[in-house]
Specification:
The protein is α+β, with helices and mostly antiparallel strands. The chain has 10 helices and 11 strands. The protein has a 7-stranded mixed β-sheet with strand order 5-6-4-3-9-10-11, with helices on both faces. Strands 1-2 form a two-stranded antiparallel ribbon. The chain starts with 16 loop residues before the first strand and ends with a helix.
């Protein structure tokens, strides 16, 4: 390690000036020679900054391809259910609980079942609106959103449970939306118990465009959620780090204060919270019930 240390770059804060574009790099990239280069951050770290969820106690969620759930703290808190990563500035830690069981499940459902737009692609806005039309009932189907993977182990597959002849596409779509929200709760609830986040959960990602889906998320989490005025939170966060590193802003707090605006805040609705709590308990029981148990070859031959 001592022999390798001289070859490694220094560890810098995300808003620290790391160097400048050299003549060789300028020729290769087309960037202006001498352009300052700031250290930057991992994409979801930058996203947390871009929605103003970078201070200790801040909670955030990315309602996107992955289910990403994060809480910032001043000390690392370890748990096998999440990663405790150094954050964009020394002395802060981002606790991130994730799985590939995110909004991509809804994209899949739209491709399979519709509604589709004029090009034949799934129409997310129309799909969410349709999903929220029927009155919720106790016999509504449930969906386990594990098409690409599960936080409960590789042997838990995606599945619909409780489908009946009277259910239609809207019920199926709502089950998918709920399933994704339930998976966020699976990640966020343990984080909240251990780290006690302060304030609302800031939400970004494609699903954050839908006020109906973010309201569902607030109801499922039992926590207020806030959406800001940027659709590309990671890009904004990277730009803010560059702004601090080059002196445009005096600090990350000032950068966030000047650029990030909350455009929607949604509180959990008590009636819906009680209903969804009951469905979440059924959801967890289904997760346990659908674990695949390997069948011995002899047993498999007997059963076939």
């Amino acid at each position: 390690l001592e022999q390798l240390a001289p070859a490694l770059p220094p560890i810098l804060d995300g808003d620290a000036l790391a160097g400048h574009v050299t003549a060789q790099a300028a020729e290769a990239t087309g960037l202006r020679r001498g352009t300052p280069v700031v250290a930057g951050a991992h994409d979801v770290d930058a996203a947390a900054l871009g929605i103003g969820a970078a201070h200790p106690g801040a909670a955030s969620a990315v309602l996107g391809t992955f289910s990403i759930n994060q809480v910032v703290a001043t000390e690392p808190v370890t748990d096998p259910r999440w990663q405790a990563r150094s954050f964009v500035q020394k002395g802060t830690w981002l606790h991130m609980s994730t799985s590939p069981a995110g909004a991509v499940n809804f994209d899949w459902a739209l491709r399979q079942f519709g509604p589709h737009d004029t090009t034949g692609a799934g129409d997310p806005a129309a799909g969410v609106t349709e999903a929220m039309q029927p009155d919720a009932g106790p016999d509504d189907p449930l969906f386990l959103p594990f098409l690409l993977g599960s936080p409960h182990g590789a042997d838990v597959p995606a599945s619909f449970v409780g489908l009946r002849a009277w259910h239609d596409r809207a019920h199926v779509l709502r089950a998918v939306l709920e399933g994704v929200a339930f998976n966020h709760r699976t990640h966020m609830a343990p984080l909240a118990r251990r780290l006690e986040p302060v304030g609302a959960v800031r939400v970004c990602g494609g699903g954050a465009r839908s006020s109906q889906w973010t309201q569902l998320l607030a109801d499922v989490l039992g926590m207020p959620v806030e959406v800001t005025d940027t659709e590309e939170a990671g890009a904004l966060g990277a730009a803010l780090l560059a702004g601090v590193g080059t002196g445009v802003y005096g600090s990350m707090a000032q950068a966030v204060d000047r650029t990030v605006r909350v455009v929607r805040r949604q509180e959990p609705r008590e009636g819906e919270r009680a209903r969804l709590d009951a469905r979440y308990r059924r959801y967890l029981s289904l997760v346990d019930a659908t674990r695949w148990v390997p069948i011995a070859d002899t047993d498999r031959q007997e059963r076939t």
